[in-house]
Amino acid sequence: MSVETQKETLGFQTEVKQLLHLMIHSLYSNKEIFLRELISNASDAVDKLRFEALAKPELLEGGAELKIRVTFDKDAKTVTLEDNGIGMSREETIAHLGTIAKSGTADFLKNLSGDQKKDSSLIGQFGVGFYSAFIVADQVEVFTRRAGLSAGEGVHWSSKGEGDFEIANVEKAERGTRIVLHLKSGEEEFADGWRLRNVIKKYSDHIGLPIELPKEFHGEEKDKPAEPEWEVVNRASALWTRPRTEVTDEQYQEFYKHVSHDYDNPLSWSHNKVEGKLEYTSLLYVPGRAPFDLYQREAPRGLKLYVQRVFIMDQADEFLPLYLRFIKGVVDSNDLSLNVSREILQKDPVIDSMKSALTKRVLDMLEKLAKNEPEQYKAFWKNFGQVLKEGPAEDFANKEKIAGLLRFASTAEGEGEQVVSLGDYISRLKDGQDKVYFLTGESYAQVKNSPHLEVFRKKGIEVLLLTDRIDEWLMSYLTEFDGKTFVDVARGDLDLGSLDSEEDKKAQEEVAKSKEGLVERLKSALGEQVAEVRVSHRLTDSPAILAIGEQDLGLQMRQILEASGQKVPDSKPIFEFNPNHPLIEKLDAEPDEDRFGDLSHILFDQAALAAGDSLKDPAAYVQRLNKLLVELSA
């Protein structure tokens, strides 16, 4: 054993302690994934060495045969995994094995409930990684040296998976990393060649470099070779380079877990080889669950990029637009140069062509999922629907295609579930209907009971009910679909076109003319609070509503801008009243102008509450209401 120097004990970051506890106590039902995770990390380390060695061949240190080796010792109850990849320096070891640098980790861990079953499903959003070793080991040792450093700059890291770890400098002749797992009592099954071989074949057959185990020895002990003979137990060819006919669904699923560090299966995947003007292979996956940092737009994302089978970078985000940031997978190009950088990717016209094609590929994959497996698509929408809603603003070229993938709640079906597509809606249009009607609001209960829907219920016209914070912003970009324009039923002067008969329109004009006096009295009473007062054609049961001006911001957009600290432009609502409602008839007959003013303000405030808005002066509303109640009870 080499002499250790600069030995110190350091504490794990708080988030690591919590993650370790979760890992050890929640993933016991699928222990063997530890080997998949460690092999996946080793494969990444070898990929990184290959890439760095393009510019600095000396990093290979004369050993260009890259591989992963797994050994075991039944007597010592250990499993050892070794790679000759990039390795780590002392600082990198502390950073990678002692802390979690993912933004949002603390918030993610706050969501843990203590219920092991629920928490074990949450961990899949986070990614399992190196710490999975502690599922089967009560002590883990790591011996590592970064390629290019001297043998004396090796590092020995050791921990029992509790509050701290030890780290020291040690002599290490070969670059790369060796991980020694000291198995817990009861986990000795993994110190067995047959068991390890099966786990590697099951989870890591797709890894594109050899994974070696010592050959099993059968015969007299005295004939046993002094040095182990090695055999490769995986296919050692990158999965995406194989013909689709040679890859099973299970192999596609395991490869997804390798590239995503998820431990659930994906919902769907698409494997394609493009030849001609551009030559590249892509393997794209739709995950089954959302990662914990999905809504942090600056979080790492993108595909693994290879050039001519050589790994170039993780999270190459130039190949897909931001609204498809949940897609995982690899792209392997024959047209890019091996020394490509992020800066070059941002300017290369080849990338634009690939991005356009890959985006269409993903949208086609989602269309196919929605058509052939609606229940699976429902799960996808629940996880990723709000992110997909960013698409129409971001990707004008595919706006119609994205719109077809969107799902909404509606007055026709769903009871709050977002299950109605625009195609469904258009297939149910009334005779003479040439518009898609929608209403935005804070919650399903609020919009479902909105007075704005009264005339639509009366005429049996379906209205889409939009309650996500992003919806009003989305609809400012989504102006039409399949030749039909979108109409916000709470905005402007409602015109139902040919859905209103000529008799209806004539009657509306006559009523409006007869109520001109009441309109003027209301304008005078409400004053600066309103932009306009008019007779409503929307109402059948309620006395009044507030409509939004055609060019004004709705409530959702106002709240989003205010929450982000931006100045919100001033706007006033339009007060519409139902001339046939008993309250309006009484108001019209009220001779006392002070009492008329109080009643008008009460109706205005009630209309604001029905729209989901907050009152500017709640105390004044309460005083007026109390005054009215006292008068009624006198």
UniProtKB/TrEMBL annotation:
Region ranges (C): 560-634
Record-annotated Histidine kinase/HSP90-like ATPase domain positions: 30-187
Keyword Cytoplasm: yes
Keywords: ATP-binding, Chaperone, Cytoplasm, Nucleotide-binding, Stress response
Residue numbers spanned by region A: 1-342
Family annotation (InterPro entries): HATPase_C_sf (IPR036890), HATPase_dom (IPR003594), Heat_shock_protein_90_CS (IPR019805), HSP90_C (IPR037196), Hsp90_fam (IPR001404), Hsp90_N (IPR020575), Ribosomal_Su5_D2-typ_SF (IPR020568)
Binding site for ATP: 37, 41, 83, 88, 102-104, 125-130, 177, 342
Gene3D superfamilies in the record: 3.30.230.80, 3.40.50.11260, Heat shock protein 90, C-terminal domain (1.20.120.790), Histidine kinase-like ATPase, C-terminal domain (3.30.565.10)
Keyword presence, Metal-binding: no
Family: Belongs to the heat shock protein 90 family.
Subunit structure: Homodimer.
Protein name per its UniProtKB record: Chaperone protein HtpG
Taxonomy of the source species: Bacteria, Pseudomonadati, Pseudomonadota, Gammaproteobacteria, Pseudomonadales
Gene that this polypeptide is encoded by: htpG
